[in-house]
Design goal:
The structure holds two protein chains of two kinds.
Chain A: H1 3-13, H2 15-34, H3 42-50, H4 52-60, H5 70-102, H6 107-115, E1 118-121, H7 126-139, E2 143-148, E3 151-156, H8 163-183, E4 186-193, E5 196-199, E6 207-210, E7 222-229, E8 233-234, E9 237-238, E10 242-248, E11 254-259, E12 266-268, E13 271-287, E14 293-301, E15 314-319, E16 325-334, H9 337-342, E17 350-357, E18 363-370, E19 374-376, E20 382-398, H10 401-421, E21 425-433, E22 439-446, H11 453-466
Antiparallel strand pairs in A: 1-22, 2-3, 3-21, 4-6, 4-20, 5-7, 7-10, 8-9, 10-11, 12-13, 13-14, 13-20, 15-16, 16-17, 17-18, 19-20, 21-22
Chain B: H1 2-27, H2 31-59, H3 67-88, H4 96-111, H5 127-162, H6 177-210, H7 218-238, H8 245-268, H9 275-278
Chain lengths: ~475, ~280
């Protein structure tokens, strides 16, 4: 490795860099809760007007979208690199520690350990003192792997030296999976009139975000809804409006079908469909001069809290056989008092309809229609209100990484527990001088920085060893 | 509900008396007052616990909806952690001087807030709720214990630097500074695991309920910030070998951030996540 690479590696492995980056990400995240987030939204504009001086640097730094800003993403990438570098370094150290601990059975390794050990005068013969030492180590929860008249080797949780590096590798894997998931994910909102279906394709979505590597299935999957229960009760708990959703494969097979409500989305493969909300759907038919139906178009509208007497307005365009816009317009459903209160289809539904010539924008017709009523358009054709029903707004997410993410999160927590709770310790107690009383060498080492348990074990062993024959100690010879 | 309110006020009174006893015991170095303070605090747990159970039966869900229930339950676990630490090492009862005023203020504040019960809506009806809330409380309890140990560590160290710790004082009976420091670190470690489980279970549940596992919602963000802060504690401890005074100060300044996350953020920010504290 070149010296520049080595310097870079050392920098990335630096715990100070890691701590600094953790603090940096934390500060940016907090800023994201203080500075309004979004692009051009009302809270952002209001804040900008109230803070004209700092708005400029905030905008320049992208702090109105903190988690998407270069500052944040750059810090996150650097933290990921630092975590990976630290994980590698920790893995090497843990492997060295583990191998060394396992080699304590080797007399030469033991000898080196004992040369650094503490000399303790025994209260009994050496053999009896070793018995007491072994007993004390067992009482402290250590596992004695070697016992002879020459000495005792014990250890505790040595395998947990891998806990910290494994946890950090899990974090690296999490970052990679989240990133990969973002690149290949799609998430959107689609409005499906109850009783009909839509293709899982870009044109079906009102709001859509896809990663740059997301690929659409061709032919597409189909999402249908045939029923909407406005008040769905499960296990005695009101779940709110719940549509029955069906997901069909491109070949028409039904892959999944269920009622969807909070905490019970429809799941099939990488697709997850949540019921987001519901509204009304006014289906209009384009009727030809001969009275025959040319086509139907469902127009979806939402309940409007600011104007409860009618729904929001939905615009539409009708095209002719050559694909040219012929007629465009807007429709909203008029709500009576009962419909306003209950958010249901009115008993006698009526819509306010306005149609204009798509090319000249000249008004063609405007009026209030009941079911079965029609307004005349161009060339004798007419627009007729067929029915008013419901539509369901579905949140559709296609993300293969979610179950992988779940698994990694659980794994990371388990590994963090091992890293934090594990206290890897090795102990060697050996006879230095035979005799009665004799002398022992005690060497106990903990592998976790800042952990003092090895001192507690050392005290217990020394107390047991120096106790004279017959003295009351927690440990007695076998 | 009337009985429940009365029981709660009995608990508030007990916690107030305990806080006074601990303070006097600490200032005037009377261990007998600290012992009495612990008994009064633990006695207060009885009506407090009974009131929580009565409320649970009445509303059909645990203490996790609405300011009154949430803050009351945090006060309960604060006193409980004092009891556990005192049981582990009786001389640790003096931690009550740090814990009881907090518990009293929390429960008092809860009692002054509206007590109308909130129903478990469809969005909350999930067994993830129990996991998420349980580990939130466990993490708070662990960090509160670490906070109290750190406070006592710093006070004793300051007194030792000024002129020594009197041998007849409550501080002299505490375990050695190194032991306090070690226990503080272990409680932060355990609390960090509980906080991690809280965040992970919350992310999984959010995906089930709302269709997204992370949206930088203020509560999610501040939970992550709290997690990062305590991760920083562990890093400074294990890699930079911080210990003693620096670690103690770190533990002391970290708890207010967690309390702000659990109680302050839902009050300060409008979000769907904050509905558990403010209602729908």
């Amino acid at each position: 490795m070149s010296s520049a690479m080595r310097r870079l590696a050392r920098l990335l492995e630096s715990p100070r860099l890691a701590i600094g980056l953790i603090a940096y990400i934390g500060v940016l995240a907090v800023l994201g809760t203080v500075i309004p987030q979004g692009q051009g939204t009302e809270p952002v504009q209001t804040w900008a007007a109230q803070h004209p001086v700092i708005e400029k640097p905030v905008r320049l730094l992208g702090l109105h979208r903190v988690t998407g800003s270069a500052l944040f993403l750059g810090g996150a990438v650097l933290l990921a690199a630092s975590t990976a570098a630290c994980s590698w370094r920790r893995t090497l150290v843990a492997t060295r520690q583990y191998r060394w601990a396992r080699r304590l059975a080797d007399p030469s390794v033991r000898l080196r350990a004992l040369e650094a050990g503490e000399r303790i005068a025994c209260g009994d013969s050496t053999v009896e003192a070793l018995d007491k030492a072994e007993c004390a180590l067992r009482e402290m929860g250590m596992r004695c792997s070697l016992r002879s008249d020459a000495g005792v080797v014990a250890s505790e949780d040595v395998w947990t030296v891998y806990g910290s590096p494994a946890f950090h590798w899990a974090l690296v894997a999490l970052i990679v999976v989240v990133g990969a998931g973002r690149l290949t994910r799609s998430e959107g909102l689609m409005g499906v009139p109850v009783g009909s279906s839509l293709a899982h394709a870009p044109e079906s979505y009102r709001v859509l975000e896809t990663g740059p590597l997301y690929s659409w299935s061709d032919p597409p999957y189909v999402i249908a809804s045939d029923r909407l229960e406005l008040s769905y009760v499960v296990s005695g708990i009101e779940r709110g409006p719940a549509p029955r959703i069906e997901l069909r494969a491109p070949d028409g097979r039904v892959l999944a079908r269920q009622f969807a409500y909070p905490n019970n989305p429809l799941r099939a493969g990488s697709l997850t469909i949540h019921a987001n909300d519901y509204g009304l759907s006014a289906t209009c038919a384009l009727v030809g001069p001969d009275g025959g139906t040319i086509g139907e178009v469902p127009l979806i509208v939402d309940f409007d809290d600011e104007m409860p007497s009618q729904t929001t307005t939905s615009t539409f365009s009708l095209i002719d056989s050559s694909g040219r816009d012929v007629v465009s317009g807007a429709v909203s459903v008029i709500l009576d008092a009962e419909a306003q209160r209950t958010r249901r289809v009115p008993a006698s539904p009526k819509v306010r309809l306005k149609a204009v010539d798509a090319s000249t924008q000249e008004p063609l017709a405007e009026g209030v229609l009941g079911v079965g009523d029609a307004i005349e358009l161009l060339d004798g054709s007419a627009l007729r209100l067929e029915r008013v029903g419901y539509y369901v707004r579905l949140s559709v997410v296609d993300d293969w990484s979610v179950p992988v993410l779940y698994g990694l999160l659980v794994l990371a927590v388990v590994l963090a527990s091992v890293a934090i709770l594990g206290r890897p310790i090795v102990a060697v107690v050996a006879a230095v001088e035979d005799g009665d009383p004799g002398e022992l060498a005690v060497w106990i080492r903990g592998f976790k920085t800042g952990d003092t348990r090895h001192l507690i074990i050392r005290d217990a062993v020394v107390r047991a060893v120096v106790a004279r024959r017959g003295e009351n100690t927690p440990c007695r010879p076998r | 509900m009337q009985t429940e309110i009365v029981l709660m006020w009995v608990a508030v009174t007990a916690y107030a008396v305990a806080a006074v006893l601990f303070t006097f015991g600490f200032v005037f170095r009377r261990d007998v007052m600290a012992k009495l303070g612990l008994r009064v605090a633990l006695a207060g747990l009885v009506p407090h616990g009974a009131a929580i159970v009565m409320r649970w039966i009445e509303v059909g869900h645990g203490p996790y909806l609405g300011f009154y229930e949430v803050v009351s339950s945090y006060a309960f676990v604060s006193v409980l952690v004092l009891g556990v630490l005192a049981w582990r090492a009786p001389t640790l009862r003096i931690l009550g001087v740090a814990i009881m005023p907090v518990a009293f203020l929390m429960l008092g504040g809860a009692m002054l807030s509206p007590k109308a019960p909130l129903e478990v809506s469809g969005k909350l009806a999930s067994w993830w709720l129990n996991i998420h809330v349980a580990f939130a409380k466990l993490s708070y309890a662990s960090f509160a214990g670490a906070f109290a140990l750190a406070v006592v560590y710093l006070i004793r160290e300051a007194r030792a630097e000024r002129g020594g710790v009197p041998e007849d004082g409550v501080l002299s009976r505490l375990p050695a500074q190194q032991t306090l420091d070690d226990w503080c670190y272990r409680l932060v470690g355990v609390g960090f695991i509980f906080l991690s489980i809280m965040i992970v279970s919350g992310a999984i549940w959010a995906n089930e309920a709302w269709g997204r596992y992370w949206a930088w919602d203020p509560i999610e963000t501040w939970s992550l910030v709290s997690w990062l802060i305590y991760a920083g504690y562990l890093h400074t401890r294990l890699t930079l070998r911080w210990a003693g005074r620096r670690s103690a100060w770190y533990a002391v300044v970290s708890l207010p951030v967690l309390v702000f996350t659990l109680i302050g953020v839902p009050l300060a920010y409008q979000s769907i996540h904050g509905a558990y504290l403010k209602g729908y």
